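Quick start: what a row looks like.
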Amino acid sequence: MAADLPAPVRRLVGLLAVTAAATVVVDLLNWWYAPDRDVGVAVRSGWALLRAFGFLVLIRQVRRGRAGARPFGLILAVTTVFALGRLVVPRSGVPPLPGVAGFGLLAGLCLAVVWLLYRSPAVGAQLTRHPPRLVRDGRRLTWREAPPRRPPVAAWLLVARVSAFTYPPLMLVPALVSIGVLLDGRLVATPAVVAWIAVATATSWLVLLVSFFMLRGRRWARWLLVLVSLGVLAVDLPLCWWLLGVDGLVRDGAPLVVAVALAFYGVWRAGRAERGREATGTEPA
């Protein structure tokens, strides 16, 4: 029940609900004031609108006390700002004032969400539960919360993992936007668009496999994640520039660069923390 939650956690849940509603309102404002409602605007608007559902999922994670709510909330907040920010600025002219005001409000809400997730002691104490699983209790099996059998996972590795999970959708959005280029007569680019979508789909499975081993303490998986991230940039950025121009490179390439940077930072921080524990001989918290 909501009444059983600490006051800071209830405030976070309310803030997430407001942020989800603001995401819908700002996206609709951007659509209303968009001078050209083409395929690109439709795809990017739809992707931004899905963020509202992401905040509802985050509310469920917070209420259930899931430890993964922190990295999920961080990535969701950052990519939401980028997803709606690229809709505010038109290809030419000055951005409409309602869109700019709505974007500023949403950016402030996302900042407040991240602050509560990472700076509130009460929220941190709430987000410590593990997902339920089958546990042998004597001669019977019970479905209850239990810590995983694997060693504790560094919090920054979770950030890297969640960041990597955003690679496929961040690649699919510009790939789908480029379908409008094909409709405009550049059919010669069809193989590139098909390959783009195929690489994005394959990336989702590759990231899932890499993260599986990464969370189980395989350090080689971290280096593999770095290589996958560099490969994603090597595919996505040139195609954004070729098919969507400089405008598409900024709108669709920048969010992917930020996601990769967060993944790199998470891997680096996790490694640094492990080296510090090895030097002092302490165990992970």
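That is the whole record. The beta strands are 132-137, 140-145. The mean pLDDT is 84.
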